Amino acid sequence: MEMQEANQGSEVSPNQTIYINNLNEKVKLDELKKSLNAVFSQFGKILEVLAFKTLKHKGQAWVVFESAESASTAIAKMNGFPFYDKPMRIQFAKTKSDVVAKADGTFVPREKRKRHEEKGGKKKKEQHHDSTQMGNAMNSAYPGVYGAAPPLSQVPYPGGVKPILPEAPAPPNNILFVQNLPHDTTPMTVQMLFYQYQGFKEVRMVEAKPGIAFVEFADEMQSTVAMQGLQGFKILQNPMLITYAKK
DNA sequence: AGCACA
Predict the structure, then answer these.
(1) DSSP 8-state symbol, A162
(2) What pTM does this model have?
(3) Containing domain of residue A61, as a range?
(4) Environment class of A208 (CB within 10 Å of its CB; exposed 0-12, middle 13-18, buried 19+)
(5) Smallest CA–C1' distance to B5, residue
(6) Over the stretch A31-44, which tens digit does the pLDDT of each residue have?
(7) Is position A124 within any domain?
(8) Considering Cα of A38, then A56, then A12, then A100, what sign does the dihedral take?
(9) Number of domains in chain A
(10) pLDDT tens digits, residue range A127-143?
(11) A86 touches strand B (CB under 7 A)
């Protein structure tokens, strides 16, 4: 008799959605989704990122890609990668995501679970959607910013690229200055990109100054290698601009 | 550990 029971149980066919668990449950949902979105968008267009705070679904998330190829690349590249101090565990999702089914035409609305009765009376305005819909960002005139685009009159530099003030560039050193990040980029996202380079020490960001980050390396040789490797790398369509930090 | 679609 041969060994014919292949992988017991863990048989899930490749599809557009990845299921991630072992996520750090202390991270706020909103930040988590933004980080996931930014980190995984390098593998292809993302249709939706879903995560829930209920007990049964804490520490887990679904990232729906436009293509199954993106999903498998994401698994190959990111499974086990440290994310908020815990290695992500990534698989294909077991069932088709609603966004996908809707695009398919195969979507059948499931019956509403009557478990949670809504609080009557107060209808709160759904001003902020909880689920990160990438369609919005992609169609936005303001890449990298979720939700509705601000009126054009308020957008000083469509495309999000800030002008670089003409000043003497800082001489090479061990700290990098990263600009043109989408405004809601999290330190974790930046860390994930620089982590792979030898000598990486830390990322520093200031909430009051969105769009920039400082990335410290042990020495200037190492920061230079990272700079060359990641110069222009796109996070949500924004190419990173990396220079040496002024000290 | 836990596979949903606020």
Answers:
(1) P
(2) 0.71
(3) 17-104
(4) exposed
(5) A98
(6) 999 999 999 999 99
(7) no
(8) negative
(9) 2
(10) 333 344 333 333 333 23
(11) no
